[in-house]
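I'd like us to work through together how a protein chain folds, taking it slowly. To get us started, please write out a protein record for me. Label the sequence line and the structure token line clearly, so we can match residues to local backbone shapes. Once you have written the record down, we can walk along the chain together.
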Amino acid sequence: MTILVTGILLGGTYALIALGLTLQYGVARIMNLSNGETLVAACFAAWLLFTAGGINPLWGLLIIAPLGFIANGAIYLGLLRPLVRRASSQGMLEVDSILATFGLLFLFQGLMHLAFGGAYFNYQFLAVPFDFLGGSYALNRVTAFFAAVIIALALYLFLYRTRIGTAVRAVAVDPDAARLVAIDVGRIAAFAFALGGAITASGGVLLSTFYTFNASMGAVFVMKALIIVIMGGVGDVRGAAIAALILGVMETLVASLIDPGLTLAATYGLFIVILLFRPQGLFGGAKG
């Protein structure tokens, strides 16, 4: 039971990171390989606010998430929208965007190395035990999980209960059909990319409350997010949330029962299995 609960707590944070990439790839059709650097930048921002300003990271979300929205919106409008306009096919756009964001990954990683070096960082926030169902868990992990659930539910309600959310889902399903009902696909794509950045930044803030991080870890987390997106079905926010919980439980099982050093190998193994036998994702086709 302890392993299961720990895995679910970890999966909740993974869900936010993957939901950000789901919006960017599933709606804007941009495979953003620099998404992990948004996560890392948010970790450092939360660390700075907490250590230098004494600001609770949960309150820091109100600062960092909007900054993530603005920064990713600027990246889309300044760098990626010209690629979208010149692309003659979806395949060309995917290749161009992968190359562009791959370059951004190293640019942002280099800037963070310049600012913070290669050291590992953490801070003490709610680092006390919390007893639940006969097990003891770190209160910061429990708090991060419930904050992630609240953010994910807010995103779900936005997508399924508002006109803009409906437009976002329509573009995710079929951009050409969305144009026929007077949806500005370009504007919605830019909005979804920026919103994805804000969601990823929120995940970074929550992750920083219990995870030791450094400037180089973004690539690992973007790969985990990609695995979750593919597992859940591209563009399906509900599938991404469920897939994140599955990945969190699997990693915890491997770390607890086999060897912590094999968690990344198990993650990539799962990725290969999904690509071979279920490339549309475990929940592919479930978008609504």
In short: The beta strands are 129-132, 135-138. The chain has a mean pLDDT of 88.
